[in-house]
Amino acid sequence: MLPELPDSPSDDSGPPAVIARGIKVRGPWGPVYGPVDLEVPAGGVNVLVCPAGSGRTALLMTIAGRMAPQSGELTVFGADDARSIFAKSALAGIDEIDTVPESVTVRDLITEQMRWDAPWFRLVRRADPAELTTVCAPVFGPLPLPPLDEYFEELSELDRLLLRIALANTKRPPLLVVGNLDFVTSDLNRDLLIERLIDLGREQTIVTATVNGVAGHDVRSQIPVANADRAELSESQKGTG
Predict the structure, then answer these.
(1) What top-level class would CATH report for the domain 18-236?
(2) ABC transporter domain: from which residue to which, for each copy (predicted)?
(3) Which of 48, 68, 87, 105 has the most CB within a 10 Å radius?
(4) d(CA 222, CA 6)
């Protein structure tokens, strides 16, 4: 059963950023998620409220264009195929996509991302404090930036997720999908994460997910999502033959 959520701010001034109608994915062992219907407004932080698991992960990957629904219709800022949606989105905090080896430094991660972003013919030197600021400051905001020579595994859980977001978001596409708020277990750090996402949401549309919803923050919308959990799908199919 989905939790009751506080009222979300409403603004019908423009078309939704994401429109899904009956999208679903099925794997070798049965349904993964769906059918899912949802609309995500443009701008701000939009929180999908549904149980954690492979279904929710797959749904977020679909919204970001990293997976195509097997049926139904999905549009993201007018794009309606996975390749075009991919070009309009960044995805962070999904272990299947952006897991970071623990024994690498912040400098190595930023250097690698800069090389991915650069034209093939450009020689990219190792990252220095200026590159650290360019990549990380928009995401970290007033929070201290991670030291260049710190190993990823030595960072706090908040800094690890913020760094993953910064690396994914260097091109600042219209849509930023962040795996889930439940990665951060400390209430204080979770509040700091949400506030950083709200700041990013002034220029992008942010989609993230959590189990229990968000209270005490000015998020754009909170959207209960049905049929995003494999157990829920199994229960709903009992007796259908």
Answers:
(1) alpha beta
(2) 35-176
(3) 48
(4) 8
